[in-house]
Fold this protein.
Amino acid sequence: MTLSFCPGMVRAIMLGLLTLALTGCGEPDDPPAAEAAPAVTEQTVAIPDTAQSDAAYYDELRARWLELERAAQAEPEHAPAAPFQQIVEEPQPIASAPAAAATPAIGIIIDDVGHSLIRGRRLIALPAPVALAILPHTQSAQRLASEAGAAGKTVMLHQPMESGAALPIGQGGLYAEMNRAELETTLQANLNSFIPIQGLNNHMGSRLTSNREAMDWVMQVLGARGLFFIDSRTSPDTQAAFAAEAQGVRHLSRDVFLDNERTAVAIDAAFQRALELARKQGTALVIGHPYPETLDYLERRLAGLEQVEGVLVVSVEELLARKYRR
Ligand SMILES: [Zn+2]
């Protein structure tokens, strides 16, 4: 028997090594890395766009990272006792501030928020209207939503949806096996689990977003509540935008993932891509994650961006306004 490695296996091995590096000692409950290989290979073959070809691989990295984040919350965070007033009193950008329509603009959403209060507060303190997409039923969901809302930042429900690679998606997940009543009950409970919520985007979801009927059910709930929808585009077969359009739900789709590669160099390259897209097409929508590397980068980069790059950072609502004003 000849020993050979397909790209999926190489990735799976790299993933295993990365997980070991992150945990220090590995996690006994982790599935063997090789089990992930077929799904990754299937996704890689199915997706023609190189920017998306690694979607399943990066989804898996995120799922592993979130498991570590969740586990870390067993130890309480020692946040300052009363930072709420302090944050409210700082001068804050207004989410709906009008922006000159001629100036190229990017919107930034940070996903997977809710496990860490400290990182969530770093996002709220960013000198730009960056949106927080908060996972339901996470330890700091309500506190961060309140503080972000008070600071004029956009708050979204980051709705877990079934992944084609069978990755863990966390509490409050929507699955293709659910009937309409089950899906609606779960979604409504998530939407009622913290306030404020202005819109929703999908966490994972490469399987569920490809299911038009399920997406129609989701969009009917959003339409009734007057919420917007952002398609994270974790699958090239996503039906979400079509369903949103059919239900009259205002929607946008992600253009660039900021931090698929968690290095300052790769994050900067992705950010530059977003700026170029915005200059070319007027707007671009960026999605990132509350990784330390991403927070460090945004804290350095966002102040004075318009002067340096000629591109504004605007709220998601402003991006939607520009789209629907046309
Ligand atoms: Zn997510």
